Amino acid sequence: MTQAASPSKTSLYERDLHLWLEHAIAQLKIGDFHNLDIENLIEELEGLAGRDRRELKQRLTTLIEHLLKRCYVKSDYDYAGWVETIDRTRNTIRDILSQSPSLRNYASSPELFQKAFDDALRIVRRNQGYKSVYFPEAWQFNRDVDALLTIDFWEES
Fold first, then answer.
1. Taking the model in full, what pTM does it have?
2. Would the CA dihedral through 147, 152, 154, 157 be positive or negative?
């Protein structure tokens, strides 16, 4: 039988992440580096960096998914909703890139685009309502991140 650690034996990081963060920020502000929980601070910072990349990939997947639907699915009823999602997602991606310009290289990488496209294609193909819709195996338009954030590709198709 295992015993739960008593509150005095568990670290603040384990008990209350938000309070631990406030503590770490206060320590950084006053220069109390000696008592700073460096190990967990590094772990949290690495997590933040990964979170931003995951968020960017997820938003790019959503953007491509709705671009695919708008370009290839014939449904006047749904167009406005898809365009609204496209606009909202583009704004979010712009905000992410504005806050973290160094992520632009990641956002522009062919590997990221391909992963996002593959995921988006899998999503639209699994939708029962689109079984008769032809979605191309490869993206037929400009892959540049600036193009993805500005061009209404359905007007070109």
1. 0.81
2. negative
